[in-house]
Amino acid sequence: MKIGIAYLEYSRRKGIERISAELADRAAQQGNEVHYHCAHWSDESTSKVHFHKVPTLDVFFSSKLISFAVAGKLSLHGGHYDVTHSYGTVVGCDVITAQSCHRAGMDIAGTLMKDSIESNVNFGIADRVRLCLEQQNFGKRKYKKVIACSNLVKRELMKYYRVPEHDIVVIPNGVDVKEFHPGNRERFRDGVRQEYGIKKEEIVLLFVGHEFTRKGLETIVRSLPILDDSRIKVLVCGGDRTEKFRRLALSLNVDQQVIFAGPQADVKKFYAASDLFVFPTVHEAFGLVIVEAMASGLPVIVSKNAGAAEDIIEDGKDGVLLSDPMNPEELAGHIRSLMNNDSLRTNIGLAARQKVQNYTWDHCAGKVMLVYREMTSMK
Length: 379
Prior knowledge:
This protein has helices at residues 15-29, 61-77, 102-112, 125-139, 151-161, 184-195, 217-227, 243-251, 268-273, 288-295, 307-312, 328-339, 342-356, 361-378; strands spanning 2-6, 9-10, 33-38, 40-41, 50-53, 83-86, 95-98, 145-148, 168-170, 203-208, 232-237, 258-262, 276-279, 300-303, 320-322. By secondary structure, the protein is of the alpha/beta class.
């Protein structure tokens, strides 16, 4: 099968980039001829995928999106593929993967986050371009099949764009259970904790994400005075502006408990160094970090508003779900329960690891290939 895939970048360091890269590689490993059309690619030395440079205007992100939508479509058109697959940045492919519904995310950001410390949510030109691409792909039915990364995204596409349910197949994202493994604790735990001045007896709550406000960092910081335990450290991995959160922590007298590590290329080390993964996101289409933490054997406390939480986690068994991600009292209660019960914390971590064994990238790629075969049979 000759497959053409389009997305802005091929990489294993980001969300959609990693998802599309993992699936493209596995399709190629199965003997298919896979062509990846992108503006940039990296880590391709061991890949069997063929790469095609798509020229883009990189002055602004909005100009990059617009130029890629046009040039990417032209690039795909010349390939004479059995199946074409876009991750939303090119209109009119056979298969469109929705890793989110941007319109839904904007609605939620504008309403649920109005009382946060960063309530002045600003929607710019890039957001309007994304909405235009969504409208063309989903509203105008410029596809043959839609893959949604979660049932949450499926419902949002049906609600906002009236996509027929029979057009959508839900395929949860995968995780590399070899890369993210409980055994990493022995390799990396002590080194990372020493680097950030974390003592052995201290309890580390890990937060990973690049959008601190939407993903609930404020709730975590506000939970610290309620917990009133100086042993607790919050380790923040992600690239976002920290000033408002530093000021908030200082005003609550918990600034010594919050450590901003910045963006990390090798986040598996931080899972290994931590004791709990905490992710009270207001809205998350899926949440790769959730399944990465689970694969690492960490007990996770996550918002029920995350797609991965709804589709994968059984509350109280292999994870803990938050009803209100903006309620620091509720979060503090769950943290305290796990801190005070070693056996419960251990059992949830073990069950989490066991659960995600069924959500590997190979498993995910197998389901995507079934969709590709359906497309070729239709042609």
